Amino acid sequence: MAVREGDPLTTGHACAGITNLAISLVRTVKANAIPGAVQGTPTVSHEVPPIIPPCSIHVAFLNKGSTNVKIGGIPWGRVTDSADAGAMISGSLNVLVNGL
Length: 100
What we know:
Blueprint: E1 8-10, E2 18-20, E3 30-31, E4 34-35, E5 46-48, E6 56-58, E7 70-71, E8 74-75, E9 82-83, E10 86-87
Antiparallel strand pairs: 1-2, 3-4, 5-6, 7-8, 9-10
């Protein structure tokens, strides 16, 4: 399933287990009227655990996308692709990117 601006991801860390993608780097292609998210798209700022509490705020990125489906020459992200220290967990229900 194609991922888009605003779709959720697991962060892979304890303070904030889930966050969302922010505004995509390229906004020319849409899935269900929402801009598709490409590799490098930032997340919404969220807490990340430090060595000593309390948790601090950071922004991470969609780390990976399809190797052969691109928007503006940048890989289009899919559900299960790496994001932050976790992965994308939801996206378009009817737009597939490279079969996913």
